[in-house]
Design a protein that fits this description.
Length: about 180
């Protein structure tokens, strides 16, 4: 698919997607995903609440589109949660550059797990996003990827869900995964 054809297909699918559905382009592949379940929403809410409780100057953004440079010419992702300084995304763009992003979070489902562990992991690293938090419900783990280099993260810390996960500065607190 040429970049023009991919852009056309992305635009058509985005326009046709029902409310709450997400259309992404990661590593040149277009993905359409339905809304998450209640457990998914609860985890996103818990992570967001913990960040807000520990770091007042940070914003927690859901439904925010990111350009993923380095993944493909049209790389666009919709993370479950984006953490960035408050006010970082006050414009009317649908997809934003990743420069202000400190952390992205994905919560897996049976449909998205492999994409979240592979293409999205590589996409976030290639975009230079400092931290990628993966709440892997299928494996019962919380995984923090950091130190991006090219299309990979060079550091990975895993804990079983129910154990605290230390988030380094500038977040600087232990994420309570027992709430998941």
């Amino acid at each position: 698919m040429t970049p023009t054809a991919a852009e056309d297909a992305f635009g058509a699918l985005s326009a046709a997607a029902p409310e709450g559905w997400r259309v992404e382009v990661v590593e040149g592949a277009i993905h359409v995903t339905g809304p998450g379940d209640g457990g998914h929403a609860g985890i996103v809410s818990s992570v967001s609440g913990q960040v807000r409780g520990h770091r007042k100057g940070l914003g927690c953004y859901t439904g925010l589109g990111l350009h993923l440079p380095g993944t493909s010419p049209e790389g666009r992702g919709l993370p479950d949660l984006v953490i960035a300084p408050k006010g970082s995304f006050r414009n009317s763009l649908e997809f934003h550059g990743p420069g202000a992003v400190m952390l992205v979070c994905e919560v897996t489902s049976a449909v998205t797990a492999e994409r979240d562990r592979g293409p999205k992991l590589r996409g976030y690293a290639a975009a230079g996003i400092p931290f990628y938090l993966l709440i892997d419900r299928e494996r019962n783990q919380a995984v923090l990827h950091s130190l991006p280099a090219g299309k990979r993260y060079t550091r990975k810390v895993e804990v079983d869900i129910s154990q605290p996960l230390s988030l380094p500065e500038p977040l600087g607190f232990d994420l309570d995964t027992s709430e998941f």
